[in-house]
Amino acid sequence: MMELPCLRTLVMRQLQMRLCSSHRQELVLVSRHDGQQAPEILSGKSGHTKVADVYSLGMTILEVFTVKPPYSGINEYALPLHIAVNLRKPERPLDVIPENSVMGNVLWAILMSCWSHNPAQRPDAEDVQSLLRTVRDDKLVPILATSESEAAI
User: Fold this and answer.
1) Containing domain of residue 75, as a range?
2) What is the pTM of this model?
């Protein structure tokens, strides 16, 4: 697991997010619009709500683990269509959240619940916090097969 330096997130008047290193006091512009917004906001069905914030929280958690913005391989102009119309969710980054890992599966389930297309099915932020406390990064490693028969499966 990669260690991240201590970062501070600043919200500017134009609703742009900026990351500020506590060590160097530099500002780095980070685009935070469509890839972080919930489908219901992008489609115009809803305004900003607590459950929409939980969707964004899930995206922020994913970015902490991957050190890349969600949907980083998709053109930013195509993101609203990708998220709100096609209802696409980020792909699981198997290099940092492996499938054959108990904690990886727990973490991915938390993120998927944050990104539920039905806002009423998303957890609240306190539930996300409680669930994340159970995830240990030393357990985000793949479980190795213990016998040749399991390795063949």
Assistant:
1) 35-136
2) 0.72
